[in-house]
Design brief:
- The structure holds 2 protein chains of 2 kinds.
- By secondary structure, chain A is mainly alpha-helical.
- In chain A, helix 3 packs antiparallel against helix 4.
- A two-stranded antiparallel sheet of chain A has the order 1-2.
- Chain B is mainly beta.
- Classes of the chains: A mainly alpha, B mainly beta.
- At the A-B interface, helix 2 of A face strand 3 and helix 3 of B.
């Protein structure tokens, strides 16, 4: 796989933006479906949310594998230590949420006796027996984690924008899917 | 009542004489499975009464009657159960019970088949129940399955007539632990 020096591995770049796109769909979809009156449209949106969630789980596992197998470009040398730690922490938390969010969703579905079908192609096994109290608890966890995800992704995005527009370094370029490192 | 007690006290003497008349005892289940959002889920009815007149040696003379309290539907998710009781689904305010009645029973592969009629939501349609009948220490066990299509009975009206998110096919699984009937 050809990789520009100073860039992330190509697979990692594509996976990053694919995950970002799916998350941008997933969160508003969740808000819409929760508010919908019970009917086929609501079920359709839940089915889509679950299918996209399991897709994100698979992509998350792929991203973690790629992160372990390939080297990442170094952050700019002049970046303060605190910012490096913050950046790495946010990324680590995002990776973790990318796995834990779908898993809690899957657990919720099992606990509510609404098994998960991925785009109607494959039905996932239930992780737990139906249990309404467990479902209610998992619902709170899933919702709470979604806020944490939004917050962390927001910080991640704000930092990226700062690197692009203010610091004008190569950090964002190193992750762009069709990037050529043009500055410096 | 006295007869039941006598049967309990003297099972061996009683069963051959009363073998033809049975009713459901503890441990009997009436479950159903359907596909929702592309994934199979199960539910059950916790209240029903079955009266079975059956002698495996003379299946042709037997009959099966079961009255099902539709309000006792339990899919292990309260919101869904409430919704199933509503007019769009079972409409229990108008039709609180379903009844299965079969008077034509014949031997079949691996057991018997009862050609019966199911009355559900005011609609009567033919439904076959394939079952096995075995004697047990306390009486007998009738285990069987039936397949039906919910829309044949008008279960799921309006938008729910669309079978994309809630499938049309419903499988019913009965497992009756039979005791000699109190009143033949």
């Amino acid at each position: 796989m050809s990789n520009a020096p100073g860039s992330f591995n190509r697979a990692r770049r594509y996976l990053h933006w694919l995950v970002a796109l799916l998350l941008v769909l997933q969160i508003p979809l969740a808000w819409i479906m929760i508010e919908q009156r019970l009917g086929p449209d609501k079920l359709a949106n839940y089915a889509l949310h679950k299918s996209l969630g399991i897709t994100l789980l698979v992509l998350g596992l792929a991203r973690i594998s790629a992160a372990l197998l390939t080297r990442r470009p170094p952050l700019p040398a002049e970046l303060p230590r605190a910012q490096r730690v913050a950046a790495r922490s946010a990324e680590g938390l995002l990776f973790l949420l990318l796995i834990v969010m779908p898993l809690t969703g899957w657990l919720m579905s099992s606990a509510a006796n609404f098994p998960v079908s991925v785009f109607g192609w494959v039905t996932l096994p239930d992780l737990v027996q139906p249990d309404q109290a467990l479902f209610a608890a998992l619902q709170n966890v899933h919702r709470g984690l979604s806020y944490l995800l939004l917050l962390t992704a927001g910080i991640h995005l704000a930092a990226a924008l700062r690197h692009y527009f203010v610091l004008r370094d190569n950090v964002v370029y190193s992750m762009l899917p069709f990037a050529r490192l043009k500055r410096r | 009542m006295i007869k039941t007690l006598l049967c309990w006290w003297g099972l061996l003497a009683c069963i051959p004489a009363a073998a033809a008349d049975w009713e459901e005892g503890p441990g009997s289940t009436l479950r159903f499975a359907a596909v929702q959002q592309g994934a199979r889920f199960e539910g059950r009815f916790s209240r029903f009464a079955a009266h079975i007149d059956f002698d495996a040696a003379q299946p042709g003379t037997g009959s099966i009657t079961a009255d099902i309290d539709l309000g006792s539907v339990d899919t292990q998710y309260e919101e869904r159960d409430d919704y199933l009781r509503d007019p769009e689904w079972f409409h229990i305010a108008r039709w609180p019970q379903a009844r299965f009645r079969a008077t034509a029973i014949e031997p079949a592969d691996n057991g018997f088949v009862a050609h019966g009629e199911l009355t559900l939501r005011g609609v009567t349609q033919p439904v076959d129940l394939a079952f096995t009948f075995t004697t047990t220490a306390t009486g007998a066990r009738l285990a069987g399955t039936a397949s039906l299509q919910r829309l044949d009975f008008g279960v799921g009206t309006g938008d729910w007539a669309d079978t994309r998110w809630v499938g049309n096919d419903v499988q019913v699984m009965v497992d009756l632990q039979l005791l000699p009937a109190a009143t033949p």
